[in-house]
Design brief:
Elements (H helix, E strand, L loop, with lengths): L16 E6 L4 E7 L10 E3 L13 E5 L8 H7 L11 E6 L3 E14 L3 H4 L6 E7 L8 E13 L2 H4 L9
Parallel strand pairs: 2-3, 4-7
Antiparallel strand pairs: 1-2, 1-5, 3-4, 5-6, 6-8, 7-8
Length: about 170
């Protein structure tokens, strides 16, 4: 994750992101709060200083995961072809702890990003931002994929609450 810009820490509720799916890319990960100093493998994580799905008109949910197989690697792979143009229009589903599925449409692929200023300064519609590395380890730059809210619907509790199995990597 790119280091956050100063912003007050929000207190997560049960309505936090619990799962992220980009079906067209084979991404389906539980989402957790980062528990250690280095992001875990096998899960996506959220930035607590930003919003959660359903936060309102300009809310930004920021999810990140490693560019590894079974995680956000497909985002990185797609971004290398025509700057990720094929991803534009794909759907991102984010489930929350209150059993809601939030569906977003990818509008923008941002490569070679070195700050989170775009997310912290966002004034557009409610959105989810997906981030992964473009290099190895904690290196910069990062890839950001920006998707705006299309709809919300009730979700099956089992679908909204996958069993996370984070591992050190």
């Amino acid at each position: 994750m790119i280091g956050p810009t100063a912003r007050p820490t929000k207190v997560p509720t049960t309505d936090v992101a619990t799962r992220v799916v980009v079906a067209d890319l084979g991404i389906d990960l539980p989402v957790v709060l980062q528990a250690t100093t280095y992001p875990a493998c096998g899960v996506a994580m959220y930035v607590v200083e930003l919003d959660q799905p359903g936060a309102g008109p300009t809310g930004v949910t920021y999810l990140y995961a490693h560019a590894q197989a079974g995680m956000f690697f497909p985002l990185l792979q797609e971004s290398l072809v025509d700057d990720g143009a094929r991803m534009v229009g794909m759907l991102v589903e984010v489930y929350t702890g209150d059993n809601v599925r939030h569906t977003y449409r990818i509008d923008e692929v941002r490569r070679h990003v070195t700050t989170m200023d775009g997310a912290y300064g966002w004034t557009g519609p409610e959105s989810v931002w997906l981030q992964t590395s473009e290099g190895r380890g904690a290196t910069l730059p990062k890839l950001q994929v920006v998707a705006t809210l299309m709809s919300r619907a009730a979700a099956d509790p089992a679908a909204a609450h996958p069993e996370p199995h984070p591992v050190s990597c």
